[in-house]
Amino acid sequence: RKEVEQDPGPFNVPEGATVAFNCTYSNSASQSFFWYRQDCRKEPKLLMSVYSSGNEDGRFTAQLNRASQYISLLIRDSKLSDSATYLCVVFSGGYNKLIFGAGTRLAVHP
Amino acid sequence: DAMVIQNPRYQVTQFGKPVTLSCSQTLNHNVMYWYQQKSSQAPKLLFHYYDKDFNNEADTPDNFQSRRPNTSFCFLDIRSPGLGDAAMYLCATSVGDLNTEAFFGQGTRLTVV
User: Fold this and answer.
1) CB distance from A98 to chain B under 8 Å?
2) Which tops the pLDDT comparison, B40 or A26?
């Protein structure tokens, strides 16, 4: 079983749609969680950290469920510029390891 | 200003010819990571340093080595590149504490001919 698993893509949605991505992790000792965005042939960039209480940044909402070892990302009112691959990242503090999921590709069309 | 700098951005090497990729940081972060990313795949952790402590992933081939001579610099050495080693190599840094993000360099795209 992979340490971090994500919904397979691609997700093709129209502008203005709401889309949700899911991610599960296998190591119950994982301590920090992030969503990164990666554009084609570019390096990953932090989209948002994920906190236990859930957090929101504009059109983006992240949720963490430690009991189910599950992370989600919700994007509301999708824009063309949201088209990218979204990577779920888990940090295991005991080993200082950042582990990436395979990513979910989002394509927003007019 | 770039905080994690990778050189070169593009590297072409011959099959079997040793190659070194470099990464430098101005963040004074404790942890430096090297990832390999192939097309449409997740970045795969090869190894990382916490300060001078080296942590190798169990499935990282012996062909890949790393050096961290000081806090600012980290090198990835590929002793005998094969065609299957063609990929984007990403360097990242983090403080190493909880809830801190990783900062990535722009990557080095390696081509093996």
Assistant:
1) yes
2) A26
> Hey, which residues does A84 pair with through a beta bridge?
A106
Q: What is the pLDDT of residue B45?
A: 93
Give the HSE-up count for residue A102: Cα atoms under 13 Å, Cβ half-sphere. 11
Residues in B touching A86 (Cβ below 8 Å)? none
- Please give the DSSP secondary-structure letter assigned to residue A3: S
Interface test with B, best of A36, A100, A105, A106 (most B CBs within 10 A): A100
Q: What is the DSSP string of B53-106?
A: EEEE-TTS-TTEEEE-SSSSEEEEEESS--GGG-EEEEEEEE-SSTT---EE--
Are B45 and B32 contacting, i.e. CB atoms less than 8 angstroms apart?
no
Give the strand pairing for B103-104 and B87-94. Answer: antiparallel
Hey, what are A8's tokens? Answer: 């397979």
pLDDT at A83: 97
Q: What is the DSSP letter of A66?
A: T
B104 CB neighbours in chain A (<8 A) are 43-45
Q: How many angstroms separate the Cα of B33 from the Cα of each of A38, A42, B81, B94, B100?
A: 17, 17, 20, 8, 14
CA distance A87 to chain B (A): 8
Alpha carbon A20 to chain centroid, angstroms: 9
Q: Would you give the DSSP letter of residue A2?
A: -
